[in-house]
Amino acid sequence: MLAPPMAEVPTAMMSQQWRRMTFLHWRYPVEAVRPLLPAGLTPDTDDDRVWVGMLPFLMDEVRPPWLPSLPWLSTFPETNLRTYVRGPDGGSGIYFFSLDAARLPAVAVARAGLNLPYRWSRMSLRMNGDLTEYRGSRFAEPRGAGYRLRVRSGEPFPEHELGQIDHFLTTQYRLYTVVAGRLISVDVWHPPWSLHRAEVLDLEQDLTAAAGLPQPHGGPLVHSSPGVGTRIGLPRVIR
Questions:
Q1: Which residue, among 164, 187, 140, has the nearest Cα to 9 in the 3D structure?
Q2: Of 32, 86, 110, 197, which has the fewest Cβ atoms less than 10 A away?
């Protein structure tokens, strides 16, 4: 289930920094997730359950590798809702139910280029020492799906306390999407995360409901990280 370390993407179409990351994960029945996946993808199960993650963070230095980052346009809050899947090629990766972002140009480019389910949202990310508050509410949707999260980050996990599931939920090197009816994969390289303990102080969200998922039961499994640098590879058609 754990993806092996990946060599750096040789030809990247985008370079990004993911900062002040929080990982929230809930376990779902397979039958709740499978109908929401496109043909060709199957849930990557853990003890007959599927993990669904909500990940708010600060997107920074977003740019093609051959261009400098731009003020305002290259830095903005983002939150994605995702699950873990197996492709018909036998690979493992991520499928996004939604990606909320605070920059309309970034939303438009990602939707047009890779058909990723980006939503333009009113968002904020406020930091005060070890406390981070994330807020978001979608534009142009009748119910304005959104969230509010306050989380306190703690000390780094000692490596011996991290298990396979901690690495699996935070270390994925491929995303899947559907473009013009064809299943596409995109490799994403990043170095290992520095994973920290974290505590949720307040959470309200309806992103899961907007995606067609039941309300999660119980509190989430939580990790935080200062962040990593990433390189996004070129899309490939899976035949």
A1: 187
A2: 197
Beta strands in the chain (DSSP E): 12-29, 42-43, 49-63, 76-86, 92-101, 118-128, 131-138, 146-156, 174-179, 182-189, 196-205, 221-233, 236-237
Residue 79 in domain: yes
Report CA-CA distances (Å) from 42 to 23, 47, 189, 237: 22, 15, 23, 17
List of the chain residues with pLDDT < 70:
1-7, 142-144
> From the centroid of its chain, how far is CA 225?
13
Q: What is the pLDDT of residues 45-93, one digit of tens each?
A: 988 899 999 999 999 999 999 999 988 899 999 999 999 999 998 899 9
Looking at residue 81, its amino acid is L
- Tens of pLDDT, residue by residue over 93-110, are 999 999 999 999 999 999
Domain enclosing residue 219, as ranges: 23-237
Rg over alpha carbons for the chain, rounded to the nearest Å, is 17
Q: What angle do CA 193, 194, 199 make, to 5 degrees?
A: 110
* Alpha-helical segments (H) within 37-156: 104-114
CATH number, domain of 216, equals 2.40.400.10
